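Ticket #4471: structure export looks truncated?
Reporter: QA, pipeline team
Priority: medium

Steps to reproduce: submit the single chain below to the structure queue and open the exported record.
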Amino acid sequence: MEFMRTAFRSWSPPPLRAVGVAFALLLALSACDALGGSGSLTPDPSDGPAATPRPTPLPSPPAGTILLEARNRQYSLATIEGVANVPTVIYFTNNDDQNHNVTIYLNAAKDRELFRGEVFVGPGVTVVYEVDPLPAGQYYFADLVTPSMHGTFIVR
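Actual output as written to the record:
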């Protein structure tokens, strides 16, 4: 019985050797993939865009844009203002490392949702929200994720 165990051990590769073999195979396959069909490591421009796209900076906010931030689970503004019957643009920057958004309601009771912005995580990420025109009035805005984040949206 002891002989069989010893023979079996000498037959199976040690764990580190198996990992080394697997790693060598992975490198070989990667090299084959990088060579493609051309046999060259030089990328072919017809292969498409680069693997890591460069971030596109946001355009400068147009006049009348609301600049709103989330920081430490609070909005930077308790009141925001828009123009009646004109679309409202909100540049919302999430400076927290958790999800936030902006949702606009008819009132603080949240009877009717008028706009729901994309929920996204920060920090330092900005999303541009385009809110459809609203009639003059006072509305309520809040974060879906952190209910303590809310404020008044006045449309004149």
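Status: closed, not a bug. The export was complete when the record was re-opened. Leaving a note from the reviewer for reference: Confidence is low (pLDDT under 50) at residues 1-27, 37-55.
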